[in-house]
Amino acid sequence: MSKIESQGLNTLMNFFTRNISKGTLCINTKGRIVTANDKANEIFTTTLKINDKTTIFDFIPDMDETAWKKLLIKLRQRQSTHLKIEFPTTSDIPLITDASICMYNHLEQEFVFLIINHVEYKNEDRCLVQCGTEKENDYNFNEIISVSKSYKKVLSLAGIVATTDATVLLLGESGTGKELLSRAIHRLSFRNQAPFIKINCATLSENLLESELFGHEKGSFTGATNQRKGKFEIAHTGTIFLDEIGEMPIRMQAKLLRVIQEREFSRLGGNEVLKTDVRIIVATNRNLKKMVRKGKFREDLYYRLNVFPIENIPLRKRPEDIPVLSRFFVQRFSKKLNKPEISIADSDLEKLTKHNFPGNVRELENLIERAVILTSGNQLNLSFFEKEKQNIDITKNKAFKTFEEVQKECIIKALKKTKWKVSGEDGAAELLALHGQTLQSKMRKFKIFKKDYLK
Fold it and tell me: Using an 8 Å Cβ cutoff, are 140 and 100 in contact?
């Protein structure tokens, strides 16, 4: 290995040491372990020692050259994978690990990274390394506020896929923080020094979206007075985040598919084929499978995007995060609005925790900002929240008709159908299976008079 290649690998391993506190092995395509970080060396002190001649076949008894070649094919298709591995040890007690494996291209060479997620001894209670801690899941998600165990699983998935080049599909309701999660994936990736570019596919017309994504040549359309680079060109070596991918027109979906498959595109109005090396993350609150069945989303594109789906959990399914987020937003907006230190009452936190939050974190953020603006003292003013919630509940109740309202509507409908014939053959009473006098009694009760409906 040349000096430049060696320095490059040291840079990569420094990245892992800085951002991931998990044991990491770098392996070349022949299966030889090129290097390992300190945590990996710590894990394998009781196993075969890592040196310049150690191969993956020494570590994994079930791994032979055929299995290794099959694994490389899968990784080249931009897929990460998980393995449960039993490593032999000097004490004859196998070491069981749960590992993530991904491929990275560096200086036109392929390297495989094996990242140890969890390690324990077989048939023993003691655990050598426990990853996925309560604190930060061993990944630096300092922009995401959460104490929820269920959401920690989402963050763990994001951390695992961040170390690969796999396309990520972020699913979930509006306001759950899909863009924030995409930025975290970029920040934890090898591409974190390159641009992170965001495009919202729902806010632009088809022609404008094509120009934004792929750029345009001078004179390609009215108003195109200069050549312009597109987002795929600007994001080269970085990450492009396509929000609201479900809103992308079918014709544009075909062009996106070409970029994913061929890693190339042309500017609008141009013939030159441009190469691009970008990591693609997409997000949607739509059900893409249903859209595929209805012919509104390309099936081949769906499967290209669905390499590593992550479901972002709505706020109502992690209510333990509401108090933490509320205090965080109070502090943020107090500082932004130059307000004195504001506290939030436990009773108000309890009310917020019980709220359904259909708008998710975005709704909570907007609510707290409004409350901070209305607050004149040191106690957060959330009085408007309770009043609005009561009004919403009243509106919901009004939307559900009473039994008497339903009866009245039914009687009027029957009378209109029989041209206001109350009783007798083909009368409203017969239609409603009521005695004529009973129907007349109900008409008096509900104040149903023929003259009021013949206008």
Answer: no
From 377, 411, 430, the end of a domain falls on 377
CB count in 10 Å sphere of residue 124: 10
Q: Residue 195: is it exposed, middle or buried by C-beta count within 10 angstroms (0-12/13-18/19+)? A: middle
Residue 178, pLDDT above cutoff 60: yes
Separation between Cα atoms, residue 451 and residue 42, nearest integer Å:
92
Identify whether 19 is part of a domain. yes
Q: How many CB atoms lie within 10 A of CB 446?
A: 15
Yes or no: say if 95 and 46 are a contact pair by the CB < 8 Å rule: yes
**Residue 142, both tokens:** 């300092």
Crossing angle (nearest 10°) for helices 250-262 and 206-214: 20
Question: What are the tokens at 392?
Answer: 């919403």
Sheet holding 279-284, edge to edge: 196-200, 239-243, 279-284, 168-171, 308-311
Predicted TM-score (pTM) of this structure: 0.59
420 in the same domain as 369: no
Distance CA 349, CA 330 (A): 12
pLDDT tens column, 305-353: 998 999 999 999 999 999 999 999 998 899 889 988 899 999 999 999 9
Residues in a beta bridge with 170: 283, 310
Q: In this predicted model, what pLDDT tens digit does every residue of 205-214 receive, in sequence order? A: 888 898 999 9
Of the candidates 289, 66, 306, 292, the residue with the CA atom closest to the CA atom of residue 169: 306
Distance CA 56, CA 75 (A): 16
DSSP 8-class letter at 220: S
Q: Give the domain-ending residue among 130, 160, 195.
A: 130
User: Based on the domain organization, do 307 and 320 belong to the same domain?
Assistant: no
SS3 377: coil
Q: Can you give the residue range of the structural domain that contains 93? A: 3-130
CA-wise closest residue to 377 among 344, 340, 332? 340
* Total domain count, the chain: 4
Q: What is the DSSP string of 71-129?
A: HHHHHHTT--EEEEEEE-BTTS-PEEEEEEEEEEEETTEEEEEEEEEEEEETT-S--SE
Claim to verify: residue 186 and residue 290 sit in the same structural domain: yes
Provide the β-strand partners of residue 274.
Answer: 265
